[in-house]
Design goal:
about 160 residues; three-stranded antiparallel beta sheet; 3 strands; about 40% helix; about 20% strand; rod-shaped
């Protein structure tokens, strides 16, 4: 009785490449696409967040300017308030710029426009900073000097 036993089906099925799954070469491409889209979304959010920060900083700086007693203290108050607001948003430093115009005629109802800008890096990497170029995000806010403010000369003509 030396009859040959039939070969099990499992071992015959696992021989050769006929059952190989195709498409494994696409995984690195998919990973690269995932990383690229993630970096793009992070950059878009960085620009939106910077726009919110500079808008708030410009508004607060213009209000600080309009509520001051004289032009030199108004400029100092506007710059300080813009820096505080940007710091509260986690922004500031050498990337921020605050433009407060010099009003030669600081009086009630005078219009002042404060512009705050911030440079957003192309790619922001945590703990390493930014790489690549940068994009300038800016916002302006206009306010009138408080017409009912004490210690200002003249009367309100707004």
């Amino acid at each position: 009785m030396s009859a040959a036993l039939p070969e099990p089906r499992a071992s015959r099925r696992l021989r050769g490449d006929s059952g190989q799954v195709g498409g494994i070469e696409v995984l690195p491409f998919g990973f690269l696409l995932f990383v690229s889209v993630t970096l793009l979304l992070v950059n878009v959010w960085g620009v939106v967040d910077a726009k919110l920060a500079v808008t708030s900083a410009a508004r607060e700086a213009a209000r600080a300017y309009s509520e001051s007693d004289d032009e030199p203290s108004a400029r100092l108050a506007a710059n300080a308030r813009a820096a505080e607001t940007l710091a509260a948003y986690g922004r500031g430093g050498d990337r921020a710029s605050v433009d407060v115009p010099v009003l030669s005629d600081f009086r009630r109802c005078a219009r002042v426009t404060v512009t705050v800008g911030y440079e957003v890096p192309a790619i922001a990497i945590p703990f390493l900073g930014g790489l690549g170029g940068s994009q300038q995000v800016a916002s302006s806010f206009t306010e009138i000097v408080d017409p009912y403010r004490d210690r200002l000369a003249d009367e309100a003509r707004c």
